Amino acid sequence: MELPEDLRLRTEDLKKSEILDLFVPTPADKEIVRLLKAATPMILAGSRGTGKSFLLRVAEIELEKTFPEDHVLPIYVSFIRSSLVHTQDPLQFQHWMLSKICNRVLRGLKSHGYVDLFDSNVLAGTPNPQLEPTPLDQLELQYEESYKNPDKPIDIQRLPSVERFKDAVEDLCQAHGITRICLLFDEATHIFRPEQQRQFFTLFRDLRSPYISCNAAVYPGVTSYGDVFELTHDATQKSLDRDLHSPWYLEGMRDLATRQVDSGTSAAILRNYENFSVLAYCVGGNPRLLLKNLSECPQLRSQEVSDLIKSFYRTNIWTEHSGLAESYPGHRPLIDWGRNFIETEVIPRLNERNLRALKDPETESSCYFWIHRDAPETVKHALRLLAYTGIVQKGDDGIRGTRAELGTRYTVNFGCVLAQLANPTAVGLDLVRKLSVKRFIEFGANHPAFEPIRAIDLNTENTLWTLREQLTKPIGGLDLTEWQKAQLRNSGIETIGKVLRTDESFFVSHLYYVGPKRARRIKNAADAAVLEYLSG
Question: Full-prediction pTM beyond 0.85?
Fold first, then answer.
């Protein structure tokens, strides 16, 4: 079954006017938004689809509403197109970022009617900042189209230095009574791009001033901060992990779903609330997964929910994780070992306990495991890759296991655990009620399961995919609905590269019953899926 046309899985598909209507203000999410709006730099870590972009947008909108009183100007900057930056410039990512930031700050100032000739010149790279597009607009676009001709040099003479940019912002803030500019960086770092990540976090640290606060959304565990940026000193870190034990968890997931699904599915949620609850716990707090799952079983009947859990969490979610090995062959041994470790070592042992818990009122259930702090680095790296796709969540460090040894506690996605049982809907809620973080299975420093990857080389920086190879791949692997893929194929768009190079006007002229609105939605969804695919 294809996703309903009006079901938006990505924040990129939402208008600003729709964001707050879909926002479910749970205490944890409200605290994240508060921190994003504060003066202290913040790093927000979360797996794909957990809502990082959405919360950045909420913070932006709330700051815009309070700007007349607080005078904090929010500037949302998306780096999703970073995958296309492909030049011979060794600092290409930093130069592209700075031009993009200049353009977004200038646009934000103009939207509030602030134009100061000299300082706006610096941000525009031109003697006349009223001209559109400015030289820095053009520079940003040149970098984003550099994948078409990576050997063509790009002239950066008009790009200001970081210090000159900060001075210009300070002068503008003082001239117009602006307290500070709050930069909200979305898609700030990309998996397996160490050189991009290091350049970003160096810039993140260097931009800090009384007039600029920086916030960034990153993926958990796979972010390389470099030697210059110190996470504990240069920013506050917050994880976007929605705790299954939280009293607001289930209510929050229900409200999130009913604000998007149609009236029929909303009625089914109320009618079959226990089945919905099992499904909600399976997604581990991931809104995108919840909406996808609901689209597959909108009536929420017990058998269809059980069938979905067994198919999606045994196969689909793992297909996405294993697919990383096709994009990044240098990481294949870690990706394959991680899947094998969770499926053959962790989940069977968890379910041995869980089956006992179903029979014995005194036995607690579990979806947790513990890794000794001296386990091989390759093991920890493989688990970080699993955290990227949301199959595993890293918990607390310094947890004491058997014989008082120290290690890290991890959580396995509850759906992956439950999917191995015969009737997930019948036992799901019983297991959730008996979950205990104190009941984890342990893997010591020299566990036999670690032997296959002890000798793997973690220096994978030179084994990254090449952009040109990725652009020739078919669209079948993209996170799109079957209807969207069919529309692309029907119009002769069958490769990733062709999606990027096709204008939405092409859909209007070549597809039946597709007008400008639907064409824009197809193009936006395809572009977002392509760019996320290219980023890992």
Answer: no
